[in-house]
Amino acid sequence: MSKKTNYSYIGVSFIILLFGIYFVPKIIDRISNDDIVRDESRSKDINLNPKKRPGNLSDLQFIEINGVRRKVPDFSFTDQNGNTISNKDYDGKVYVIEFFFTTCPSICPKMNANMVQIQNAFPDERSFGIASFSITPHIDTPEVLKAYADNNGITSPNWHLMTGDVDEIYKLANEGFYLYTAKDENAEGGFEHSGNFALIDKNGFIRSRSDSQGSPIIYYNGIISEEEKVDETGMEQQITWLKEDIAKLLKE
Q1: In 3D, which of 65, 63, 57, 94 has the Cα closest to residue 200?
Q2: CA–CA separation, 139 vs 148, rounded Å?
Q3: Which positions ≥6 away from 207 have C-beta within 8 Å?
Q4: Which residues have C-beta within 8 Å of that of residue 84, sequence separation ≥ 6?
Q5: Quick one: which of 51, 62, 99, 129 has the most CB atoms within 10 Å?
Q6: What does the angle CA 240 – CA 244 – CA 250 come to, to the nearest 5 degrees?
Q7: 113-150 burial, b if ≥16 CB within 10 A, otherwise e?
């Protein structure tokens, strides 16, 4: 081996020794003071870390389309007491939305029996409300809605059963919430509509819990009762979920 080669090894050894003396203690010191984090050694991936939620936000998801959070569209209708009610009347309140009609012979009685159970779970909560929109406004006048409320245990001052322009109501259902509503002569009662409930937070955003895959369920089944537990297809009731999630939003 030549002297030149020996000098090369000596030079490399000297550099390694110098690195150990000068840099290793500094690295140890940074680790001990939590200055080094995993992000320094890999590219950031938001899927690898839980999302940080500012303030007192719950774990309920916002419903987004193309990155934009879906909010309740503006509406203005007449309720069972003859008062004009708009989305502004629900500002600062957590509320549940449904579409129904008083002469419905099939799913509406089940939906509103479940909604009464939800109402009764928050008897003194002024920050909770319910918005029920009639899809047969030509039948469901304020007087008819008032009688319906009296006969079905609807007692909350924040539960408004609303009637108004039929085109506006159908637009709110089909375009505002994507809760299908249509006249259908082959359906029981002559109309077809969704049996789902939408949950709205205090700022007017549509919210929901996540499924087992981490995606929002978007809406809550309003037909199956807590007593039934499951329907004939094996689907489990979601009224308990809805009550729990209302309570979460009330704390936000």
Answers
A1: 94
A2: 12
A3: 60, 61, 62, 63, 199, 200, 201, 245, 249
A4: 76, 77, 78
A5: 99
A6: 145
A7: ebbbbbbebbeebeebbbbbbbbbbeebbbebbbebbe
3-state secondary structure of 246: helix
> 3-class SS at 233?
coil
User: Which helix (DSSP H) or strand (DSSP E) does residue 148 occupy?
Assistant: helix 142-151
**pLDDT tens for each residue of 202-225:** 999 999 999 999 999 999 999 999
Q: How far is CA 160 from CA 77, 150, 178, 245, in A?
A: 10, 12, 21, 21
Tell me the HSE value of 49 on the side-chain side, using a 13 A CA sphere: 10
Residue position matching structure tokens 């704390």: 251
Sole residue written with tokens 């549940």:
96
d(CA 77, CA 94): 19
- Other Cβ atoms less than 10 A from the Cβ of 58: the count is 16
Q: Tell me how long the chain is.
A: 252
Tell me which DSSP letter residue 174 carries.
Answer: I
pTM of structure:
0.78
Residues ≥6 apart with Cβ < 8 Å to 138: 166
Tokens of 201: 């937070």
Q: Could you read off the pLDDT of 151-186 as tens digits, one per residue?
A: 999 999 999 999 999 999 999 999 999 999 998 888
Domain ranges in the chain are 3-48, 61-250
Q: Kindly report the backbone phi and psi dihedral angles of residue 13, in degrees, each rounded to the nearest multiple of 5, phi listed first.
A: -60, -40
Q: What are phi and psi of 239, to 5 degrees?
A: -65, -40
